[in-house]
Design goal:
The chain is of the alpha+beta class. The protein folds into 2 domains: 1-43, no CATH class; 60-190, OmpA-like domain (60s Ribosomal Protein L30, Chain: A). It is built from 5 helices and 4 strands, in the order ααβαβαβαβ. A 4-stranded mixed β-sheet has the order 1-4-2-3. Strand 2 (119-125), helix 4 and strand 3 (158-165) form a beta-alpha-beta unit. The longest helix has 25 residues, at 2-26. The radius of gyration is 23 Å and the shape is globular.
Length: 190
Amino acid sequence: MRQVHGIMASTLSVFTLLLIQGCAITGWWGSESGHEESGQAELIKEPAIKEIPPDDGQLTDSRTSLGMQSELLSRNATGLSDGTLSDVLFDFDQVTIQMAAMRVLEVDAKQLQQDRVAGLLLEGRGDEFGTSTYNLVLGERRAKNVKSYLQELGIFIDVRTTSYGKDRPLCFEYTNECRQRNRSVHFVVK
């Protein structure tokens, strides 16, 4: 009887271990959002931003000094001499490519093919709302979605993605137009 009890205890231990490993692999308890991307569990455990806070009248018109703005603008250049690639804009707190952005991407894809571009860096960004970490993840998801859509359009070049979140803005003012410009994916030709 002790031998049967020992076998049942060993079997139960193995089953429990397999169940725990299976849950860890599938992300059963590792993801608040209930989904995974590319086999990795969600790393950000903060709620999505639900609304845009009202403008603060005490803010200055610019977010950075003139010297820093000049440096960031030079870093943000597309790499094409005529600067014909357009940024892909996103709605507030969204990663879905809208119809207007799809048309922009189709024009950009034609330009990339025409110029025979071999390498591209897609820089995802967010506006100043939310934490830096949240915006880094948001920017990376935006960049990956743009990369996927470019591949659907037949662009099979070396495309890399990165995210600057809210920490390296394209626009420096506290206006809705500027915030919209920062909720984007920016093209840099390599």
